[in-house]
Amino acid sequence: MKPALIRIWNEIDVDEVKKHLLMAGELSANCENCQQLGIDFAKEQACSECHTRFRYISFRKKDNKAEELSAIRRLKHKRPDLTIVDYEDIKHACGKSKAQSLFDD
């Protein structure tokens, strides 16, 4: 059977993901830990500013699902070390975590 891309849900620490997350755009990415801009997500293993090692990547929302899947396939080939996180999932989880921290104080 030919391999296919599928989403798998897993409970993970949102703060840990955000600390090691690259947020990718069309040509470059930013480090979610320190907000360093202009990172080449196809090559960089760690942030040049805060030296955090990247373990996760998320693509900013693309309008075309076929284009998004194509980008994911290319990235999986170039960077098998990165775990791809769905943008909507991480955005929702970070928002929920931030709201919860307001009530924990």
Please provide the ordered H/E string of secondary-structure elements.
Answer: HEEEHEH
Number of helices: 3
Q: Supply the number of structural domains.
A: 1
Shape: globular
- Unreliable stretches: none
Oligomer: single chain
Residue-averaged pLDDT: 86
Structural class: alpha/beta
Q: How would you describe this structure to a colleague?
A:
The protein has helices at residues 14-19, 65-78, 87-104; strands at 21-24, 29-31, 56-59, 83-84. The longest helix is centred in the C-terminal third of the chain and has 18 residues, at 87-104. The protein has one domain (14-104). It is globular and about 45 Å long. The model has no long low-confidence stretch (mean pLDDT 86). It is an alpha/beta fold and 105 residues long.
Brief digest:
The chain is of the alpha/beta class.
Present the secondary structure layout.
Layout: H1 14-19, E1 21-24, E2 29-31, E3 56-59, H2 65-78, E4 83-84, H3 87-104
Parallel strand pairs: 1-3, 3-4
Antiparallel strand pairs: 1-2
